[in-house]
Amino acid sequence: MAFIVGLTGGIGSGKTQVADRLAELGVDVIDADVVAREVVEPGTDALASIAQHFGYHLLDQDGRLKRDKLRQIIFSDKQAKTWLEKLLHPLIGSSIKTQLAQINSPYGLLVSPLLLETEQNKLVDKIIVVDADPSQQLARAINRDVTNLAEVEAIMAAQMSRNKRLSKADIILDNTRDLISLHNKVDQLHQHLKTLAEDFNA
């Protein structure tokens, strides 16, 4: 089994930029958000269950899940969120495990916003938290998704607190500066992780 590094951080912290840079450096990246979309593709049992439970108005004309509409439901209804997690988390976990077993790079990267809130953290050997100032997170998330302020604040409030997330990190990657600075840090981190992977596999 390859050495697996988990990457997480709050919304707008810069997880994607870190993961993209590591992918450029040849690291196999598994993104839990991508997997979460795959398990509810048209034709899947999970999507059928969601439509049956919440209503078929959550599907667009092509039979795809209206993810923004579902997100609005689960952020305002705790029971709905629990139901959805019970359905999807095992499916997502199973797919991630299958993909982790196929890692070919010196180490693999699992990117997940819910790494620390779910069993996914048990799949990794080291945890990296990308950290930024909450005001920067807000600005980046709004610029990226053109989402309104209230929605981003609700997502941040629903996520694990910054202090708790940092307390669980093996490595904290500061992303309070520009992209060039972040890339330099990631390049150094990549060398460090390769060394850890070599020691792990020795």
Specify the structural class.
alpha/beta
CATH topology: Rossmann fold
The dominant shape is globular
Q: Percent helix among the residues?
A: 40-55%
Question: Biggest β-sheet, characterized?
Answer: 5 strands, parallel
- Tell me the strand order in the biggest sheet: 2-3-1-4-5
Tell me what portion of residues adopts beta-strand conformation. Answer: 5-15%
Please work out how many helical segments DSSP would assign.
9
**Element-level helix/strand string:** EHEHHHHEEHHHEH
Number of strands: 5
Number of domains: 1
Cα Rg: 18 Å
User: Which second-level CATH architecture applies?
Assistant: 3-Layer(aba) Sandwich
Q: Return residue spans where pLDDT drops below 50 for at least 5 consecutive residues.
A: none
CATH homology superfamily = P-loop containing nucleotide triphosphate hydrolases
Span of the ends, CA to CA: 12 Å
What are its keywords?
202 residues; alpha/beta; Rossmann fold; 5-stranded parallel sheet; 5 strands; 55% helix; 9 helices
Structure overview:
With 202 residues, the protein is α/β, with parallel strands linked by helices. It has one domain (3-196): 3-Layer(aba) Sandwich (Rossmann fold). It is built from 9 helices and 5 strands; from the N terminus they run βαβααααββαααβα. The protein has a 5-stranded parallel sheet with strand order 2-3-1-4-5, with helices on both faces. Helix 1 (15-24) packs across helix 9 and helix 4 packs across helix 5 (78-100). It is globular. The mean pLDDT is 93.
